Amino acid sequence: MNSKTSVLIFTIMCLAYFSSDFSQRIWLDSGMNSEAIHHINKDESLLSITKLNDNYLAQILSNLESYDVTLFEVKEAIKIKETKGMSLTEQANQQGELDRVFTGDIELTLKGIFNKDISYVLLQERNIKTSDISVKQVKKGESIHGYLLSQISQKSTQLTVDERVIELMLYQIKPITQASIN
Questions:
Q1: Is 156's pLDDT higher than 80?
Q2: What pTM was estimated for this model as a whole?
Q3: Residues of 78-108 as b/e, b for ≥16 C-beta within 10 angstroms?
Q4: Is residue 129 part of a domain?
Q5: Could you tell me which of 155, 79, 150 has the C-alpha nearest to residue 115?
């Protein structure tokens, strides 16, 4: 047998199989009429649904009530999480080299240092509740939010309040570790 004959026989067998399958799916078995099909659809044994007693259903609903929140409540929770600052106790303990300082609802970040004729720094103020941002020019010896600008260097400035000294860094160089190399 050559290859053309084999392909022809295979094609005929496939067509016979698919036509048989198609006819069985489309046409109903001669023994079933539309009333029999309608009776099967109404049979409750095929559509059996588990019935919950009222107490069990009430318990399920009460357990799920804790997950019921409005969209407003979700947005407020996200806003609080995003704008979290520091507690007053944490603010009172700020000292040393920092990249930002919190004072009340304000976050101060050093954005620029200028040492020309008059030395000054640019401090960004961000209100953590309203997200309002402004930039202030502060000279040595001036105060901002209770912090005295006591010293200006090339990469940092010193803020003092009471006995605490905070060195607000313009940038911080992260030490190179083996993990950062890999």
A1: yes
A2: 0.50
A3: eeeeeeebbeeeeeeebeeebebbbbeebbb
A4: yes
A5: 155
